[in-house]
Amino acid sequence: MKLESDSKFTLYLLAIIAGVSVANTYYLQPLLYVISRSFSRDPRTIGTLVTLAQIGYALGLVTLVPLADRMSKRKLISFGLALASLISLLQSLTSSFVIFEVAVFLVGTVSIVAQVAVAFSATVSTAEGRGSAVSKVMAGLLSGILLARTAAGVVAEIAGYKTVYLSAALLGLALAVFAWLKLPNDRPVHTISYPKLLSSTARTFLESKLLRRRAYFGALGFAGFSIFWTVLAPYLSVAPFNLNTVQIGFIGIAGLAGVGAARMAGWAVDRGYARISTPASWAIIAGSFIALYLARNSLVAIVIVAATLDLGIQGIHITNQSIIYRISPDAQARITTVYMGTYFIGGAIGSALATYTYAYFHYAGTALLGIGVSALGILLWLTGRKKEAKLTANMSEHQLDHG
After folding, report:
1. Residue 119 predicted with pLDDT over 70
2. Which of 36, 222, 247, 395: disulfide with 41, CB 3.0–4.6 Å?
3. How large is the average pLDDT for residues 282-294?
4. Using CA atoms, how far apart are residues 138 and 218, in angstroms rounded to an integer?
5. What is the DSSP string of 285-341?
6. Distance CA 354, CA 203 (A)
7. CB of 384 within 8 A of CB of 279?
8. SS3 148
C-alpha cells in the first residue's frame, strides 16, 4: 500500500501515539516523593528510578527501534503499546519496590514506540515538508510529557499513585487497538537480518559526522532536562515549599513553551535557519540554569525556568531531528536509534549526576551542574559550526555523508 505523504490524519494519530507512549516514562517525575514514602525509600535518592527509565529507553532504542526498518511500523507500534499497557498494570498492582523498579525499566524499554512514531512521520512526509511533519509529531510527544506530569499529579492526589498506572494501562491498550485498525499498513524498507541491521546501525553512527554531532547536542540537552526534573519533586515536596503532587504536576504546564519551540524549530530548519536556532537554544538553556541558581528559593522563578528550559531544550531537539532525518530517507529508524540512543544515555547520566549532587550538594549543586552542561553544549557548537554548515550544505537526500 502506498502511503499518502500529506495525510493529516496519520500525522495527528502518530502525534497522539507518541504522546501517550512517552508519557509512560514521565508519570514518575511529580510522584517521586510519594513513591519514596510508599516504599519507605530515601526521597533524596529516589531519582534513581528516573535513571532506570532512561536506561531502559536507551536499550529499547538500540535493540528495538532498528526493527522499524525491517518490519511494519504499524505492527511495531501496536504491539509496543499493548506491552507497555501490561507493564503499567503491573506497576499499579505490585507492593514490591524491586518489582516496581523492574517495571520502570521495562516500560521505558517498550516506550520507544514514541520514536517509531516520529520515524514513521518522516516516512510518510515529503522531503520538503519533513521538518514540519516531524515537528507535528514531536509536538504531540512533548504534549504527552507535559500532560503526563500534570495528570499524574492530579490523579495521584485524588486516588493514589497506583491509579495513575492503572489509567495508563487502560489508555495504552485502547490506543493499541486503534493504531492497529487505523494506521497505514506500511511495508518494511529492508529485509536484512537483525544482526546485520544492528551492525548497519553502528555503521550509520560511524559514517556520519553530522549525525554524531547532532546526537551529542541531543545528549547534552536531555542531560540538562533530566537534571532539572529529576530532583524537582523531592525539592518542592519539603520546606519551604511543601507542595503536593497536584501542585508539582501543574508546574509541567509551564513546559508548553517547549511545544511552541518544536513547531518554530521545524519551521526554521525547513527554511534554512538551523544555524540560528541552535545557538539561540543553547543561550536559553544556559540562561535558565543561571537564573535557577540565583533564584532557587523562589517558586515563581522555578516555574519560569521550567518554561524557558523546555523552550531551549526542545528548540535544540527539533532542530537536531529536522536535520538528521534528511541524511538518509531509507534509514530513518536506524538514524532514530543512533540519535535517540545517545540522547537518552545523556539523560540517564544527567539524572544520575543530579541525584548525586542533590543528595550531597543540595539544589544549588544541581543548578551548577546544569550550568556546566550548558557550557559544554555551547563549547561543542563553537568548535564545529563551520564544518557542520559545510556538511549540511553538501548533504544528499539519498546517502549518508562520509566526510
Report:
1. yes
2. 36
3. 96
4. 14
5. HHHHHHHHHHTTT-HHHHHHHHHHHHHHHHHHHHHHHHHHTTT-GGGHHHHHHHHHH
6. 32
7. no
8. helix
**Cis-peptide, bond into residue 240, ω within 30° of zero:** yes
Which CATH superfamily hosts domain 8-394? MFS general substrate transporter like domains (1.20.1250.20)
Cα first-last separation, the chain: 36
Spatial neighbors of 77 by CB under 8 A, at least 6 apart, are 17, 113, 116, 117, 120, 179, 183
Nearest to 19 by CA among 152, 140, 118, 111: 140
| DSSP state letters, 93-115 | H---HHHHHHHHHHHHHHTTHHH
Count the neighbouring beta carbons within 10 Å of the beta carbon of residue 207: 16
Which 8-state DSSP code applies to residue 255? G
Distance CA 151, CA 124 (A): 31
Residue 345, pLDDT above cutoff 80: yes
**CA nearest to 108, candidates 66, 70, 154, 61:** 61
The residue assigned the cell 511529580 is 30
The tally of CA atoms less than 13 A away on the side-chain side of residue 62 is 14
Amino acid at 71: M
Residue with cell 524549530: 265
Distance CA 263, CA 326 (A): 17
Which residue type is seen at 226? Answer: S
- What's the confidence (pLDDT) of residue 373? 97
CA atoms within 13 A on the CB side of 266: 20
For residues 189 and 70, is the Cβ–Cβ distance under 8 A?
Answer: yes
Rounded Cα distance, 108 and 114, in Å: 11
